[in-house]
Amino acid sequence: MAESAIQNVAVCGAGVFGLNHLRVYRALQQSGLPIRLAAIVETDANRAAALKQEWGVPVFSSIEACLADCHIDAASVCVPTVWHHQIASALLSAGVDVLVEKPIAASLEEAEQLISLAEKHQRILQVGHLERFNPAVMALHDLLNGPMFFEAHRLSVFSPRSLDVDVVLDLMIHDLDIVLTIAQSPVSQVHAVGLPILSPKVDIANVRIEFESGCVANFTASRVSTERVRKLRFFQPHQYVSIDYARQDLLLINVAANASANPSAGLNMQKPRITPGEPLRLEIESFLDCNRNRQQPVVSSKDGSAALALALQINAAIADHSHRAGLDRYSH
């Protein structure tokens, strides 16, 4: 694509998160970026009529109708997970670059099919692991020094959205992706417990993972909490690192090599300067840049597949524990 060419973009699925994608694309268009919000795909007829009036662009009831009528360069796929494969497959086969919301697909087989399609058609397939674009996370890259212990907490109040998947695929997968990226080691053991509380699927889960490197990570995720928490902490040689995703805050506590002789004098606290930004906007800007310059995305399709594989392994461990512990009485 030429540098000056207008990028025609589409959003498939205009639910809660799809509306956020629409907002960002329109804001980027209005800021002077050479993009045009060209189409929306929405199957709900009543919602489609309202979307057409609000956004002033064609709204289609199917991806096939959209592709037959519009030239699209790049698209966000924000439909429920069960439809990711179908919609993304149609787009990739038509030569459209795709930003698909996490998880990449409902199964590893579907994920591999999408990866193969993207390679076959030489298309970009980026997965929407949003926290990779959190400014506090991006500031970590030059600070990593062999972390060996992680604690991740992601708690949310109950919402009727995203109930097509469990809390591991809905919330925890963000932290799984971040830790996999940092740890850079195969998983050796998974221990997990989870319970359905307000939905038929697991709503709260606790997981312990050990990597072949010896690194250990504990994850807690809940979508039935009374508070909102999104934090990651990890320990590496002579340093404790704490990230507050919501506040885009990064705290470093450095421990002197001789701290055991004088603990109070051996600690040094630092708060690196973070340039704030909306992760979704940064993610979409990066995706459009990849589309324009034909470069690999920050969050590749293989990254998305790895996070999905670990999430499914965790779900299998949860199911095994539930069976062994006789937790059927918690099911709906």
Plain-language structure description:
The protein is an alpha/beta fold. The protein has 2 domains: 7-123, NAD(P)-binding Rossmann-like Domain (Rossmann fold, 3-Layer(aba) Sandwich); 132-277 and 311-325, Dihydrodipicolinate Reductase, domain 2, CATH 3.30.360.10. It has 9 helices and 14 strands. It has helices spanning 16-30, 45-55, 63-69, 84-93, 108-120, 135-138, 167-183, 279-293, 301-325; strands at 7-12, 35-41, 59-60, 74-77, 97-101, 125-128, 149-155, 187-195, 204-211, 216-222, 229-236, 239-244, 249-255, 267-270. Strands 8-9-10-7-11-12-13-14 form an 8-stranded mixed β-sheet. The chain has a 6-stranded parallel β-sheet with strand order 3-2-1-4-5-6, sandwiched between helices. The longest helix is centred in the last third of the chain and has 25 residues, at 301-325.
